[in-house]
Every structure is written in structure tokens, then in C-alpha cells.
Design brief:
Length: 100
């Protein structure tokens, strides 16, 4: 028995490794569908964060009255950027799954 065969026999396999050896193509379809769902979920989270950002914008006038303008502005910018990043990542993940 050579070293390579011994190493493969000893290394633990994960479920995804075991599934990748199937030859009928069902695993590839499950992987594409999983990527598509992950991308859609990330995009949905990005839109949800933007909706919460609109609530922060709604309370901005009261923040200006109390002198917390910079705090509200930093929260608005941070949530806007986070939402945009999640949308872009989700779109790319979803796009990669449809290209395969």
C-alpha cells in the first residue's frame, strides 16, 4: 500500500466530499440551488437593512434637535454601506450560480 492511498484512507471525509463522488449530477443541482438561495437571502438582508436605515432617517430631525446629528449621520452611512455590500455580494453569488 502506497503512502497516498494510506493518507486518503486515514483522512476524514465531510458529507460534501462524499456527495461530490456521486456520478448522477444531483449534487451539482443541489449546489447551484443552494448558491441561488444564499444569494437571494443576502440580497433580502441588504434590503432589510436599508429599510431599517429609513427608520433612522425618519428620526434624524429629532436627533438634530438634541444635537446628535453626527451620530445619526454615521449610523445612516454605515447601514447604507452595509446594505449595499450585502446586495452586491448576494448578486454576485446568485449570478455565479446561474452562470454554471
Amino acid at each position: 500500500m502506497d503512502v497516498k492511498a494510506l493518507r486518503q484512507a486515514v483522512e476524514p471525509r465531510t458529507a460534501s466530499d462524499a456527495m461530490s463522488y456521486e456520478s448522477d449530477g444531483h449534487v451539482a443541482m443541489m449546489d447551484i440551488e443552494e448558491k441561488r438561495e444564499t444569494g437571494a437571502s443576502l440580497m433580502f438582508l441588504g434590503l432589510g437593512i436599508w429599510m431599517m436605515d429609513l427608520l433612522v432617517v425618519f428620526f434624524l430631525p429629532s436627533g438634530i434637535k438634541f444635537g446628535h446629528y453626527a451620530t445619526f449621520l454615521s449610523i445612516i452611512i454605515a447601514m447604507g454601506v452595509l446594505g449595499l455590500v450585502l446586495l452586491i455580494i448576494g448578486y454576485k453569488v446568485r449570478g455565479k450560480s446561474s452562470a454554471e
